[in-house]
Structure formats: C-alpha cells, structure tokens
Amino acid sequence: MFLNTMGGRFAGLALAGAALAAACAGSSDQPSEENTTAIVDLLSTRQVIRGFGGANILPWRPDMTVDEVNTAFGSGPGQLGFTILRLRVPRAQSEFGPQIPTARIARSLGAAIIASPWSPPESMKTNNNHIEGELRSDSYEAYAAHLRAFAGYMSSNGVPLHAISVQNEPDVTVDYESCYWNAAQMLAFVKNNAPSIGIDVFADESSAFQHNLTDAILNDPVAAANLPIIAGHIYGTLIEPRSLALSKGKEVWMTEHLDLDTSWNAALATGKEINDCMNASMSAYVWWYIVRYYGPILEDGSVSKRGYVMSQFARFVRPGYFRVSATASPQSLVDVSAYKSGSGVVIVAVNRNSSAVSQTFAIENGAVATFTPYTTSMAKDCHQEDQIAVSNDRLSVTLDPSSITTFVSN
Questions:
Q1: Could you report the per-residue pLDDT of 356-409, keeping only the tens digit for each?
Q2: Is-catalytic flag, 256?
Q3: Is 319 helix (H, G, I), strand (E, B) or coil?
Q4: In the predicted structure, residue 8 carries a pLDDT above the cut 70
Q5: Quick one: how many helices (H) and strands (E) in the chain?
Q6: Which residue is catalytic, options 68, 169, 205, 273?
Q7: Could you tell me the sign of the dihedral formed by the alpha carbons of 8, 37, 308, 409, in that order?
Q8: Same domain, 220 and 364
Q9: What pLDDT score was predicted for residue 35?
Q10: In this structure, is residue 137 part of a structural domain?
Q11: Predicted confidence (pLDDT) per residue in 311-327, tens digit
Q12: Which residue in 68, 205, 251, 256 is the catalytic one?
C-alpha cells in the first residue's frame, strides 16, 4: 500500500546546482502506475462462489411481496441479483406453510434456499421455553426429525433446501427465541444425528464466527464428514480465513450481518465488507432482512444504496464462479477482488477515497478484449458505463470518488 504524502513535486532551490534542481523538479511522491497495479491471475483459482443474498424471516417481518422478491432475485437493471434466500425454521409444524410463497418465487429465479432454526420446539428443551435453555440430551433424535420434517415439507412443495442449520447463534445469551449449545453438544449432534436430516447441514452460525464449536467437529473425522459448510456471522469480529475449515475442504459461508447506519459511507462499507469476505475465501455472503429500512430493499419497495452496492457483486458474480488471485489493496483505500467462470472475468473495485483514483489491472494467464464497467456511487446506481479496451493485457481505468465499480468482461 502506498500513501500519498505532502510535497508532490519539489521546485529547485536557489542555492542548488542546475542538475540538482532538475532532478528535484522531476521527482514525485505520488505512487507510480507500476507500484499500484493490481495483478489479476486467472489461473490462480480460489474458492467457489455460491452467491449473495438475505433473509426473509417470518413471522417477525411481513412477508415479501411478489414485486420485492422479483427485485431481490431478478438479475436485470434495477434488480439485486441475489441468489441465496435464508428462512427461519419454525418451532411448530403449523407454521411451515407461510415459508413457501416467497421461497417458491425466489427459487424460480435461481436462488438457493437455506434455513436456520432459532430454537427447537419447547418440549425438547431443558427449560421448556423458546428463549434460552438447551436441547435436552434425550431429544437429539427428535430434533433431527423436526429439521427433517421442515426440509421434507419444503421439498414436497417445490422448494428443496440447499442446506439447513443446526442452530442460529448458539453462543449468545439473548431475550428472544434462542438456544445455547456448547462444543460437546454440537459435536455429538452433528456426528450422530446430522445424517438423518437428509440434506446438507451447516454450523455453527456463531455470532462472531468463533471457532470452538466447529473446530471440535472438524477435528473429528466422522463428524466432519457430516458438515460440508462452516457458517458464521461477523458481528464484532475481524473478517479472516477459516484455515482449518478450508484445509478440510469445507465451504465457508457468512450467513448474517446487518448495519443500522443508512448513510452512503456505511453502504459503501458494506461493499468493502463483502469484498473482505470474498478475499477471506468465503463462498457466500448473506445479509439480514432483505426488506428493512437498513436493508437492500426499503419498506416502500425501492432499492436502497446498500442494495445497489450489494448488487455490484450479486448481479455479476454468479453461483459457480471462482474467485481468482488479485492484489487485494493495490493502493490506499482501494479494495479489489476478481472472479472467473469459463472465459468470463469479473473484477470488483471499491474506491474509499473522496477523490477519483487511477487504477490499472494487469490480466495474467488469460486474454480479455474489453470490459464493461458498472458503478454505484452517491450519484449512480449500478450504472452501466462505456466499454473499456484491454491493451497489452492491462485495463487502465479511473475509479469514481467514493464508489464501487464492477468490470465485466465481454
């Protein structure tokens, strides 16, 4: 990373010789194109991308309207391009039905459906209450059957789940629907009961992506075989690779985060956050409520600035793409990630500077003729710009002030 410093170009001093004056006049503290170039290596593949999305949690919020679902999961101009929908697993089977309508439309638009329980049925818990408590040791089989029943209900209604969680945030004490699990309990359930659920299981959805619950599972070969996805939330924690999970060949998903700040700077920060998650080898990024005043869709049905920022990834980095190696921070306050699928290449650049920035991308081990940029800023909403030609495997661009731009190969 190179920082701009004061001084710029130095004028010659009166007492200096002519040669020294000329040398000083030609010097600069500004970073050169070479030392700010972002290298994009198309042969250096990283994790598979499963997608980006958000949650529709019933009955805590009104169900999404048809228009809102189309806006969230459609991939055209003015739409978000989401490909993951997260649902709540109800405690009572009588509440399964309302989960279907939105999920069915989202799936018809190509979305993968995942689901998380906030609490097992009260009768299975140590305190017989939907708040706090633990799953009784004699209820593990019954709880697995409950999760299987929800997955089966969704599938029989045309909405098969991609995966189901064991428990939302099992490591926190809260005053709403919840259940506490320790590492031994989570290990025992995944090892002995997860296979009977009948679909892929993910865990542990720690509020701060803690390691202790899932590390116990990953270090047990039998249990690890039953857990294809390691998932967590990123409240109050650093975003970093889950090295043990990745070494075991597991996908890592970020399945919940929110920020109540609705300012433009906070919306752009969500773009950096998604970029950071991708560069930490996560395969998915899932926001909290899709429709909320701080979410990607506002309660009047319009797309928020945060929504347009999220669409810079979701519309163009589609399920099945792979992240490729790219210089993550080629210059101060510029954040980069890159992706490919076949001959298609996508580069995302976040410019957190208050001024425009010149940025060059060097494309290695692959040929791209042109890119089409799409930009979101305070003035633009995923706006399509003119094509830019690649010259000598280099893409040289100017990033708008305080913006996120996605470059899509043609």
A1: 999 999 999 999 999 999 999 999 999 999 999 999 999 999 999 999 999 999
A2: yes
A3: coil
A4: no
A5: 11, 18
A6: 169
A7: positive
A8: no
A9: 86
A10: yes
A11: 999 999 999 999 999 99
A12: 256
Residue 94: inside a domain? yes
Residue 134 falls in the annotated catalytic set: no
Find residue 177's DSSP bridge partners. 131
Q: Does residue 138 carry a pLDDT above 50? A: yes
Q: How far apart are CA 55 and CA 91, in angstroms?
A: 18
Measured CA to CA, the distance from residue 318 to residue 337 in angstroms comes to 14
Neighbours of 385 (CB within 10 A): 15
Residues 6+ apart with CB under 8 A from 341: 318, 320, 321, 322
* Mean pLDDT (the chain, rounded): 93
DSSP 8-state code for residue 125: B
**325 and 44 in contact (C-beta within 8 Å)?**
yes
**Same domain, residue pair 307 and 370:** no
Are the beta carbons of 290 and 82 closer than 8 angstroms? Answer: yes
Tell me: pLDDT of 11 over 80: no
Residue 28 predicted with pLDDT over 70: no
Domain of 401?
A: 32-45+323-409
